[in-house]
Amino acid sequence: MPAGNRIFLQRNLEAAGYVEAFRTLPAAVVADCMSRLPALSGEIRLMSAPRNAVMCGLAVTVKARSGDNLMLHKAMDMAGKGDVIVVSNEGDRSQALMGEVMTTWARQRGIEGLVLDGPIRDIEGISKMDYHLYAAAITPGGPYKDGPGEINVPIACGNIHVSPGDIILGDHDGVIVIPHGDAAQILEAAQAYLIVDERNFELAKRGELERGWIDETLKSKQVEIIDGRF
Predict the structure, then answer these.
(1) Is 90 annotated as a binding residue?
(2) Which residues lie below 8 Å from residue 27, measured CB to CB, with a gap of 6+?
(3) Which residues hold Mg(2+) (predicted)?
(4) Residue 159 resides in a domain
(5) Which residue segment(s) compose the domain that 22 sits in?
(6) Torsion, Cα of 46, 9, 100, 167 (10° steps)
(7) 20 backbone dihedrals φ, ψ, rounded to 5°
(8) What does each C-alpha distance from 78 to 46, 134, 225 come to in angstroms?
(9) Nearest to 103 by CA among 129, 77, 137, 71
(10) I want to staple 68 with a disulfide (CB 3.0 to 4.6 A). Which of 16, 144, 173, 179 is the partner?
(11) 100 annotated as ligand-binding
(12) What is the band of 1 on the pLDDT scale with cuts at 50, 70, 90?
C-alpha cells in the first residue's frame, strides 16, 4: 500500500449517534470541557453565510499536497450527507483549494461543511452562500490537480489532530474537534457545563456574578499586590 498516495473507503462511525446532541451546544462550551485544547487555529474562519450557524458532522479527512485539490475532489464524491470534509494542506497559502463551483457542488450533495487549512477563492459569491465553509485565506491563485494525497487518514488541521470519524463542530467562533472515542464523556460534561454557563450569563446581566475566585487564584499563585506606584 503506497503511503502518501492512498484512499481508505471506510472510517470509524461510532460517534454518529452523538452528532445531533452536539449540534445544540456552542463550540466554546464544548472546548472548555476539553481543557480548552480542541480548537483549530483562529486563522481558519467562516467564509460563508449559513442561515443555521452550527455545523456538526463526522470528519472525512483529506491530506493534500501543498496547493493541490485532487484528493479534495475525490473526497467530495465520497462524503455522505451530513459529513464534514477536513483538509490538511501542508500550511500552504498560495493556491486556492476550491471556489464557488466546488462549494455549490458540496452543498448540492448534502455535505454538512468543509474545513480547509488553506485558501479559497470566489469570495464574493461564497461570502453570501448559505453553507458552512471554513478556510484560512483568500487568493485568486488556483490549485493543481495532480496529487499525491490521502483520504481518511489521521491529519493535522489548524494545528489540531483530526482522525476520520471524529466529530467536527463549528459555529461563528470557529471549529473544534471531538475525538470519536471520547464523544459520550465530552457530551455529558458539556451539557452540564452549558447549564452553569447560561446561569452565569444571567447573573452577569444582573450585575450579580461572583468574582471572588480571582483574588483567591492570585493568592494561590503567590502574586504580590503592592499598594503603591512602580
Answers:
(1) no
(2) 39, 169, 170, 171, 173, 174, 175, 176
(3) 122
(4) yes
(5) 5-192
(6) -10
(7) -65, -35
(8) 23, 20, 60
(9) 129
(10) 144
(11) yes
(12) low
pLDDT at 122 > cutoff 90: yes
- Please report where in the chains the cell 459529513 appears, as a residue: 83
Cell digits for 101? 463551483
Q: Each residue of 40-58: pLDDT tens digit?
A: 999 999 999 999 999 999 9
Confirm or deny that 101 is annotated as ligand binding: yes
Q: Is residue 218 part of a domain?
A: no
CATH code of the domain containing 35: 3.50.30.40
Number of structural domains (the chain) is: 1
30-39 pLDDT, tens digit per residue, is 999 999 999 9
Q: Quick one: what percent of the chain has pLDDT higher than 90?
A: 99
47 within some domain: yes
Which residue in this structure is represented by grid cell 500552504? Answer: 92
| 59 closest CA partner among 81, 86, 41 | 86
Which cell is 18 given? 452523538
Q: Is residue 22 included in any domain, yes or no?
A: yes
Whole-angstrom Cα distance, residue 150 to residue 70? 10
Coil, strand or helix at 7: strand
102 annotated ligand binder: yes
Cα–Cα distance, 59 to 209 (Å, whole number): 38
What residues contact 113, with CB distance under 8 A and at least 6 apart?
A: 55, 57, 84, 85, 131, 132, 133, 134, 168, 170
